[in-house]
């Protein structure tokens, strides 16, 4: 079964970022000596990618900062629901 070029577009984009930034980038930590070294480097990159990188769609803010700002703006004035 064959698909079109858009089947895995998002995954291929993230894989491209991974290769360009971690594997081939100027700040890479390699060469890695063990599989565990690659796993730890990958975990660090995933954390950076999801929490700290500047994202143009979010106004050049890191995703974690954008999320905190979003929730503070939308739920800061609401009272918790509970038993009185």
UniProtKB/TrEMBL annotation:
Name recorded for this polypeptide: Integrase core domain-containing protein
GO biological process: DNA integration
Ranges of residues in domain Integrase catalytic: 3-63
Pfam families: rve_3
């Amino acid at each position: 079964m064959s698909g079109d070029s858009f089947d895995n577009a998002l995954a291929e984009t993230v894989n491209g970022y991974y290769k360009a930034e971690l594997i081939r980038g100027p700040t890479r930590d390699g060469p890695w000596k063990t599989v565990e070294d690659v796993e730890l480097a990958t975990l660090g990159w995933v954390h950076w990618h999801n929490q700290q990188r500047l994202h143009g769609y979010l106004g050049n803010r890191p995703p974690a900062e954008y999320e905190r700002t979003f929730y503070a703006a939308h739920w800061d004035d609401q009272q918790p629901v509970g038993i009185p």
